[in-house]
From TrEMBL, chain A:
InterPro entries: CcmF_C, Cyt_c_assembly, Cyt_c_biogenesis, Cyt_c_biogenesis_CcmF. The keyword Ribonucleoprotein does not apply. It is a multi-pass membrane protein. Pfam families: CcmF_C, Cytochrom_C_asm. NCBIfam families: nrfE, PRK10369.1. Keywords: Cell inner membrane, Cell membrane, Cytochrome c-type biogenesis, Membrane, Transmembrane, Transmembrane helix. This is Cytochrome c-type biogenesis protein CcmF. The lineage of its organism: Bacteria, Pseudomonadati, Pseudomonadota, Gammaproteobacteria, Pseudomonadales. It comes from Tamilnaduibacter salinus. The chain crosses the membrane at residues 6-30, 42-62, 96-114, 121-142, 178-198, 210-230, 250-266, 275-294, 314-332, 353-375, 395-414, 426-444, 450-470, 490-513, 616-635. Belongs to the CcmF/CycK/Ccl1/NrfE/CcsA family. GO terms for cellular component: plasma membrane. GO terms for molecular function: heme binding; heme transmembrane transporter activity.
Automatic annotation (TrEMBL), chain B:
GO terms for molecular function: metal ion binding. Residues 132-155 are annotated as: Disordered. Keywords: Cytochrome c-type biogenesis, Heme, Iron, Membrane, Metal-binding, Signal, Transmembrane, Transmembrane helix. Possible subunit of a heme lyase. It comes from Tamilnaduibacter salinus. This is Cytochrome c-type biogenesis protein. It comes from the Bacteria. Pfam families: CcmH (PF03918).
TrEMBL record, chain C:
Belongs to the thioredoxin family. DsbE subfamily. Residues 34-172 form the Thioredoxin domain. Keywords: Cytochrome c-type biogenesis, Disulfide bond, Redox-active center. It is a single-pass membrane protein. The keyword Disulfide bond applies. This is Cytochrome c biogenesis protein CcmG/thiol:disulfide interchange protein DsbE. One of its GO terms (biological process) is cytochrome complex assembly. It comes from Tamilnaduibacter salinus. The keyword Isomerase does not apply. It is found in: Cell inner membrane.
């Protein structure tokens, strides 16, 4: 009965979502505050029913209810309980339910944390989020019902969760990723509401900023987790493959990063409004596009869900309606008038605009690279592949350019920056970075052009950021006082930028100086990488909860001293009979040692073994943690807490003409 | 999120290592060449892997052929060409520069170029319009004052 | 006028949508052969039944034929075999077999047990000719015209529906031209 309750809860949630998307909006448009007041209870109710549905599905998994088709296809009674829990989002239907849960969660969060927002604006924002909810609830109910039963022939046991997904990284990766993806819907809803009201002003940017930042933090962590998981679970030691599905999550990240920066300009200076609002729409559209690419089967990917044309068509229709409606609204309502604010060529405005140009170019490179084969095929241009070499060649220079611009940009001031002064500020970062960029590659094993450029860019960001803190923390009352005086949002920015430097350093060093050896080894054999000796000690059988494994033992020594012992495994999962490679990894801040078992050669005495030394590979994920931490700091700035109290007044001021007048049409 | 198709499951094992471990080369340069070529050739069977990482039988055949041609001393271009003539442009992970891929390769340049032009236009407008408009409003104010008070004020 | 610029994103989005819509339901797993419109690559192979006889691309001259790539190790080949028998026996379609990376005895036994739909079966144990042909997974079926030019390739099992809807129209077209 419980699964039916779940299904019924989803239907009720749909009904509430329909009401949410219409009633408060009607209230806002007609000025009836009684109708606007429905927004918050409806958002709450919608979340509650979706949560009930989610719990019903979770219960089915934990209790091994194989009469539910989705459970039977994605679980097994032998699965450890925590994987049974994460198996809830291990397939298309359940992960879609998680998507919707997260979406309604964000809707609820807006309802809770935006109490100080003008009631009509809040009503409009929640209505827009309600519309997105309607779309996805229809999607799940009409094409992908997770509660479908296998009656009367209930299978005795499930076909198990895909072994690749039986992993800690995969328990948290999808929720994080969805928190990010879906979180951009808030910025989107604010943008649409602002367009409907015809009032795009600094207040709008200020309200949107913290939401965008939170979503961005989650997405950064989600992508990093995915990369980390691919690194140790796929068995190759690669950390980014430019696979369409990876690109799908990277696109909204790039657009979201641009959005965060352009929101800063719009908030502080009231300029580039049309651009910022377009970015807000674009970022969420790219999230939807990602969802479409992953679930429609239009592109081949190692990661895609089993494709189903009906689902593809439905989600494309959803994507189409969302984008066409919002861009049409944009076309009619976005301000076409240029604001009369003055800024010089070296102003912070222009630096942030350059950041946007470069990030958008990077986003376009990824987007065009991902979709080009599809477009070419459509135009009858034949088949073609766009892979890693293309992205490395086009994306890397843009990333370096972003870093160079960033290092100079942190010193810039609003309105105008003195060129000579800026030059003097940059002297130190340039000198130090040059030194680092020469020394580090030589120390790591020889000069490489890309290593030089990458190290320069990373240290440029680092040194410029530190120099900027130094300059800004100067105080008559001592350095500590100066440091304490800087705001949390400033430190947030610092951590975000340091995170970028760390990621760049990691990516540069590991791709240029990582060593990879494929060797054939029998127990007793040794292989060397630099000063490290990898000795294949033995191989034996091991019994896991739902798999059997052959586990190798490798001792790694440096000049006779034992560094670590690694236990790579070759697992065979009992139910799906699939073979998985579990790499043995010794993680370190400065290097990872990585051993993976390939196939036995010559019967079973010798094994093909892949041995890797990966310097700074951890920095890739460490940098993402820095970024997310920075974002967290930024939104905890007391500015936002104070402002929340003052919002009513701000809005009154804006309404009375302090903000930019709308291009056309009065307030909604 | 990342549920995988059954096909992919069969491919993620490390069979690639089994074969590449056994290849012999005359020089380190040749080994490097082999590494580059096999990482830039896409497997036609399993599709989202380079032949270096795939364990489909065809990928292993292709590696063998690449190895043979590298040892024979054929150039990288010739080896790529030999593969493309059999399996089509599909196997090239690095698309060639040709009319149908111009747009692909020019994307970064176009994007950055357009962006720079827009910024340039904005800067010219900003520097041209703002002083004028402030001068005009100054004049307007004076004119308005003159109309109201009968004479321009000096302050 | 300036407002028109604001509609550019909409136009781009719609264009992209059309392309994406066309991609839905597309089969991304099979590739067109690189040899379409090209002559069959040169080869000199023994046949399955005659280890000493050497055959060249001349076997494809004279009439439009099917070239079917198969092996006893390939489960899908087992599935499509009855359809090939039907095509050869009932429709009189000439089929050249290419026994790919296989063992001669096993292959001969297979044909003995299941029937032999092939006019001749080329024996390619190393897969050298298959490689030149761009075979990436058996079974594959090619349509080769009377001049020995490759006209079409189907990757995967040939069944009644595939024959009727995909292969037969192309085959008839070239047979009539030849």
């Amino acid at each position: 009965m419980v699964p039916e309750f779940g299904h019924f809860a989803l239907i009720l949630a749909l009904a509430l979502a329909v009401l949410l998307s219409s009633v408060p909006l009607a209230g806002a448009l007609t000025g009836r505050s009684a109708l606007q007041g429905f927004a918050r209870p409806l958002a709450t109710g919608q979340f509650v029913f979706i949560a009930i549905a989610f719990m019903a599905l979770t219960r089915a998994f934990l209790l091994d209810d194989f009469s539910v088709a989705y459970v039977a296809n994605n679980s097994n009674s032998l699965l450890p309980w925590y994987y049974k829990f994460s198996a809830v989002w291990g397939g298309h239907e359940g992960s879609l339910l998680l998507w919707i849960l997260v979406l309604s969660g964000w809707t609820l969060a807006v309802a809770i944390f935006s109490r100080r927002l003008p009631a009509d604006l809040l009503a409009q924002v929640l209505s827009v989020m309600g519309m997105v909810n309607v779309g996805f609830l229809l999607f799940i109910l009409l094409t992908s019902n997770p509660f479908e039963r296998l009656l009367p022939n209930v299978p005795a046991d499930g076909t198990d969760l895909n072994p690749l997904l039986q992993d800690v990284g995969l328990i948290i990766h999808p929720p994080m990723l969805y928190m990010g993806y879906v979180g951009f819907s808030v910025a989107f809803a604010f943008a649409i509401a602002a367009l409907m009201r015809g009032r795009l002003d600094s207040a709008w940017a200020r309200w949107t900023r913290p939401w965008t930042t939170v979503a961005w933090c989650f997405l950064s962590l989600g992508i990093a987790l995915g990369s980390w998981w691919a690194y140790y679970e796929l068995g190759w030691g690669g950390w980014w493959f430019w696979d369409p599905v990876e690109n799908a999550s990277f696109l909204p990240w790039l657009a979201g990063t641009a959005l965060m920066h352009s929101l800063a300009v719009t908030e502080k200076r009231g300029v580039f409004k049309s651009w910022t609002v377009l970015l807000a729409i674009l970022t969420f559209s790219l999230s939807l596009l990602g969802t479409f690419l992953v679930r429609s089967g239009v592109l081949t990917s190692v990661h895609a869900f089993a494709s189903d044309p009906t689902r593809g068509q439905f989600i494309l229709a959803l994507l189409g309606i969302t984008i066409v409606a919002s861009l049409t609204l944009y076309g009619f309502r976005a301000p076409a008038v240029h604001t009369r604010v003055r800024y010089g060529a070296l102003s912070r405005e222009v630096f942030l605009l350059m950041n946007n140009v470069l990030l958008m170019a990077a986003m376009l490179v990824v987007l065009v690279g991902t979709l080009y084969p599809l477009v070419l095929d459509y135009l009858g241009g034949g088949t073609l592949s766009v892979g890693e070499p293309y992205f490395n060649l086009t994306f890397s220079p843009l990333a370096v350019a972003v870093a160079l611009m960033l290092g100079a940009g942190v010193f810039s001031r609003w309105k105008r920056t003195d060129g000579g002064w800026l030059g003097r500020q940059l002297l130190w970062p340039a000198a130090v970075s040059l030194l680092i960029a020469v020394i580090v590659p030589l120390w790591l094993g020889g000069f490489e052009p890309w290593a030089f450029v990458g190290c320069f860019a990373a240290s440029w960001v680092l040194v410029a950021t530190v120099r900027d803190i130094w300059g800004k923390s100067a105080s008559r009352h001592g350095r500590m006082h100066g440091l304490r005086r800087l705001t949390r949002s400033y430190y947030g920015m610092v951590f975000g930028h340091l995170g970028m430097a760390v990621v760049m350093a990691g990516a540069t060093v590991v791709s240029n100086y990582g060593v990879e050896r494929d060797v054939r080894m029998t127990p007793g054999d040794q292989a060397r990488i630099g000063d490290l000796t990898f000795r294949f000690e033995s191989i034996g059988d091991r019994e896991g909860p739902n798999y059997t494994a052959q586990q190798g033992v490798f001792e790694v020594r440096e000049e006779g001293r034992l560094v670590t012992t690694l236990y790579p495994e070759k697992r065979i999962y009992n139910v799906q009979r699939s073979v998985m490679t579990e790499a043995g990894i010794d993680a370190g801040l400065f290097r990872d040692l990585f051993v993976a078992l390939g196939e036995p050669v010559n019967g079973a005495s010798a094994w093909a073994v892949r041995i890797q030394h990966k310097p700074l590979v951890r920095w890739l994920w460490l940098g993402a943690i820095f970024m997310a931490f920075g974002g967290g700091l930024a939104i905890s700035d007391k500015r936002y807490r104070l402002r929340r109290r003052e919002r009513k007044e701000t809005d009154r001021q804006n309404a009375s003409g302090v903000g930019e007048p709308a291009a056309e049409g009065g307030p909604g | 999120m990342r549920a995988f198709c059954l096909l992919a499951l069969l491919l993620v094992t490390l069979n690639a290592a089994a074969t590449s471990a056994t290849y012999q080369f005359e020089s380190e340069a040749d080994r490097e060449r082999f590494r580059t070529l096999t990482s830039e050739l896409r497997c036609p069977k399993c599709q989202n892997q380079a032949i270096a990482d795939s364990n489909a039988p065809i990928a292993s055949d292709m590696r063998e052929q690449v190895h043979r041609m590298v040892v024979e001393g054929r150039s990288n271009d010739a080896i790529m060409e030999a593969m493309v003539s059999r399996f089509g442009e599909f196997v090239r992970y690095r698309p060639q520069v040709e009319p149908r891929t111009w747009l692909l390769w020019l994307t970064p340049l176009i994007a950055v170029g357009v962006g720079l032009i827009v910024i340039g236009v904005l800067l010219i407008r900003s520097s041209r319009r703002s002083p004028e408009s402030s001068v005009l409003s100054e004049e307007d104010r004076q004119r308005a004052d003159a109309l109201l008070n009968g004479s321009p004020r000096d302050d | 006028m300036r407002r028109l610029y604001l509609f550019i994103p909409l136009a781009l989005a719609v264009a992209l949508g059309v392309v994406l819509a066309s991609g839905i339901g597309r089969d991304t797993s099979s590739l067109d052969s690189a040899l379409i419109g090209e002559p069959v690559p040169a080869f000199e192979l023994a046949t399955l039944s005659d280890p000493d006889g050497a055959r060249t691309p001349d076997v494809f001259r004279g009439q439009t034929q099917l070239l079917n790539v198969w092996g006893t190790w390939c489960p899908s080949c087992r599935v499509e075999h009855p359809e090939l028998m039907r095509l050869a026996d009932e429709k009189g379609i000439p089929i050249v077999g290419l026994n790919y990376k296989d063992n001669r005895d096993a292959a001969l036994k297979w044909l003995e047990e299941r029937g032999d739909p092939y006019s001749v079966t080329l024996f390619d144990p190393q897969g050298a000719f298959g490689f030149d042909l761009g075979v990436y997974g058996a079974p594959e079926t090619y349509i080769i015209d009377a001049e020995g030019i490759v006209r079409y390739r189907h990757v995967g099992v040939v069944n009644e529906q595939v024959w009727r809807e995909t292969l037969a129209p192309v085959f008839e077209q070239y047979r009539q031209e030849g």
